[in-house]
What does this fold into?
Amino acid sequence: MELSAVTSAAALLPTISVRRAEATAQPSPAAAQKTTLDLHVNGAVHPVSVENRATLLDALRDTIGLTGTKKGCDRGECGACTIHIDGRRVLSCLTLAVMTDGREITTIEGLAEGDQLHPVQTAFIEHDAFQCGFCTSGQIMSAVACIREGHAASDDEVREFMSGNICRCAAYPQIVAAVRSCSGMEEI
Amino acid sequence: MGPFAIARSSSLDDALEATAQPGAMLIAGGTEVLNWLKEGIVAPSLLVDINAVPGLADVQADASGLRIGALARMSDVAAHELVQRDYPAISQALLKSASPQIRNMASMGGNLLQRTRCAYFRADTPLPCNKRVGGTGCSARLGEDRAAAIFGWTDHCIATHPSDVAVAFAGLDASVELLSAQGVRTVALDGFHLVPDRAHASETVLQPGEMIRAIHVPASAAARNSCYLKVRERASYEFALVSVATAFENDAGTIRGARLAMGGVAHKPWRLRAAEAALEGTSIADDAALRRAIEQSFAEARLGRHNRFKVELGIRAAVRAVQIAGGRA
It folds into this structure.
């Protein structure tokens, strides 16, 4: 019962977002400078019409309704908006949505298999690797890539290759432990 | 961020034609351009996405040297086997730059076109800054100047250039291949960036309608023996207070053909020419001689109020870099 409520709420989100965008659109050149494209997110194709100046972060959150990716600094400094494009970790706040047409985008919502959490998500819970949780989506997306890249062989290496993800609660020791616990796992 | 049209170029000819239009600006990795757009530092009417131009991301190495395509990503160049083996300073400088996410995005050409991280230049609310709005003055000159340049600055601007790998390129005598509708020209990396001057707003010799196509680095024994040392206030993900790229031939413990370039001390990668000359024939084991040689380049340093530490830090960093390249550290 609870699960179906969540599913139907999620299904409504895109419609709500699109309506809001249309309602607030200004009759300025900005409104005309839009592009229609297909965003491929977590295996699904989303035909969208976005302003050229929209970041991928805003398109994911406001147009598609995937709010798991977080906006921290919006300047490429904090890592909270980390996602994967074509398998590489990148910052969605420094990416224009119009430049990602047809590319394979993975967000935090795309890691779990149904109710089965991804091993790195499980490791973050087991190691108590967050307090407020705001940076956690970005930390986990970065960690998955860090492990796949082969950059999680030691604590020092994890600290270096996770340095693009800032944690204001300073859960760093637990984050390093969580990432190290998944190092070398085949299923990452 | 103002509105703009976007064009995707699929060939160099397309890109050059689009770039020649008034108000056009190229975009590659976007890590700098997006921040400029958000801060209002630039307001193009047309962004030209060059990522689909074929061949522009290639990295090629042969006996004569290394050619890095402008669209090659920082992380890919850093991990390139031949770059690591024959040009270690380049790989080291890249791996000490930015974060893994940004290195996956940022292009090598764009890296050279970064603009200063001076807080007055990057301010959310525009502050007096000659780089931001010509003629408004330099707030750092009488303000927060801890990160400021000690070489080559003028009252017009005292900011430093943020790139790490440009410093490695300067130390390895790299050159930049520039393409325009008029053809190709090649300029030395050391002459690519300009020191601040009231007479011009340009920060590089890149002309309107021109784009970076590649970076060339000549192969040499010195390049194989190069290294990059970066000193910063955090262990990772921070710009340099000072940095040093060095390359020389180790002739049984004697320095031959030394090249030294520094970051964090000027508006461009700064070659220490006097030190290079003085290091010729010096024993790598002679710490006092290394220091004396390197000090020669710091005689021309001009200091502000809060950046005086950069002289001693710079000298020590340069000595240390030579020791590392000489196998002593």
Summary: The domain at 33-110 of chain A is CATH 3.10.20.30 (Ubiquitin-like (UB roll)). The first strand of chain A starts at residue 34 and ends at 41. The two ends of chain A are 31 Å apart (CA to CA).
